[in-house]
Amino acid sequence: MHERVGIQPIAAKAMKDVEGVQFLQWCLPRLHLCWPGYRKVRRQVYKRIQRRLQSLGLQSPADYQTYLETHPEEWAVLDSSCWIPISRFFRDKEVFQFLEQEVLPSLARQALAQDESVLRCWSIGCAAGEEPYSLSLLWRLNLQFQFPTIRLVVLATDIDDQAIARAQRGCYSPSSLKDLPKSWRTQGFDHTAEGSSIKPEFRESVTFLMQDFRQAAPEETFHLVLCRYMAFTYFDAALQNKTLRQLVERIRTGGALVIGNGETLPEGNFALAPWPGVRGIYRRA
C-alpha cells in the first residue's frame, strides 16, 4: 500500500490543463514514455492522477511531484496510471478484413505445410478483450471451415488486472460491438439487459494473462502478434527499439506483426517487411 497512514483524504484541486501538461512532460521521460503520444489522451491520465492525489491526501501535481521524489515505490503506481485502454471489437475494420482475407489464410497454409495443427496468436495490451475475441469470432465464423484441421489459439496479455477481469467476464456494451457484422452480433453473443456476453465457444480459444511485456514475455513463439496503439505510440525511442527486438524474437519466420494504423516502426534492421496491401502489418523475413 502506498497511502499515507493516518492522513484523511482531502479534496484535491481540479487539475488545470497547463499544470497537467507540465507534470506529464516532467514524469513521462522518467518512465521511458513520450509526451506526443499522450496529447490526445492526457485528460484521461489527469483523471487517474486526480484519484491518486485524493487517496494520498495531496492537492496538486506539484505536491505529487515532490512525493514521487521522496517515495520511489510510487513510480510504479504512476506508471500504471499512464496505460489508457481504448478498444472495441473490430477496431480498424479494414485491418481485420485484411487479416481475414490475406494474413490468417496465408499463416494457416504455412502451418499446414509444416504439419502444424495450431495457429498461435498473441494480443498485447488486450484491454477488456475486444481484440482477442475479435480474432476468435473471425476465425470460427469465417475461416474455420476453410482450415478444419487448424485450431486458432490466442494468448491475450495486459498490465491491468482490472482489464483482465473485465475481459474474462466478457460482457460488453452495444457501442463496443458497433463495428461487427450484424450476423456476428447474433451468432457470437448472448444479449441481456446487462449487456452482450460473448458465447462460450468463442471464449475457449482465448487465454488471458496479466503481464507487463516490458518485463516478461511468453516462452512460446507465435504466428501472429498484435501490438497496437501502445508501444509505438507511448514508448520513447529507446524503449520502442528494445520492445521491437523482443517482439521479433517471439514471431515465427514468416509470421506477422500488426501495429496501429497511425504508428510507425523504429528504423533499423529488424527482419520485418511490410505486408503489401494494408498499412501497419509486417511479415518476419
Task: State the main characteristics.
single chain; 285 residues; alpha/beta; Rossmann fold; seven-stranded mixed β-sheet; three-stranded antiparallel β-sheet; disordered N terminus
Give a verbal description of the structure.
The chain has 285 residues and is α/β, with parallel strands linked by helices. The protein folds into 2 domains: 17-81, no CATH class; 93-284, 3-Layer(aba) Sandwich (Rossmann fold), CATH 3.40.50.150. The protein contains 11 helices and 10 strands. The strands form 2 sheets. It has a 7-stranded mixed beta sheet, sandwiched between helices. Strands 3-5-4 form a 3-stranded antiparallel beta sheet. Helix 5 (93-113) packs across helix 6. It is globular and about 60 Å long. The relative contact order is 0.12. The model is unreliable at 1-10 (pLDDT under 50).
Task: Name the helicity range.
Answer: 40-55%
Flag low-confidence runs: 1-10
Secondary-structure element order, N to C: HHHHHEHEHEHEEHEEHHEEE
CATH topology of the largest domain: Rossmann fold
Q: In whole angstroms, how far apart are the ends?
A: 46 Å
Radius of gyration: 21 Å
Mean pLDDT across residues: 92
How many strands in all?
10
Strand order of the largest sheet: 6-2-1-7-8-10-9
Count of the separate structural domains: 2
* Number of alpha- plus pi-helical segments: 11
Concise account of the structure shown:
This protein is of the alpha/beta class and about 280 residues long.
What is the fold's blueprint, element by element?
Elements: H1 17-27, H2 42-56, H3 61-70, H4 74-81, H5 93-113, E1 118-124, H6 130-143, E2 151-158, H7 161-169, E3 171-172, H8 182-188, E4 189-192, E5 195-198, H9 200-203, E6 206-210, E7 222-227, H10 231-234, H11 237-249, E8 251-258, E9 272-274, E10 281-284
Parallel strand pairs: 1-2, 1-7, 2-6, 7-8
Antiparallel strand pairs: 3-5, 4-5, 8-10, 9-10
Helix pairs in contact: 5-6
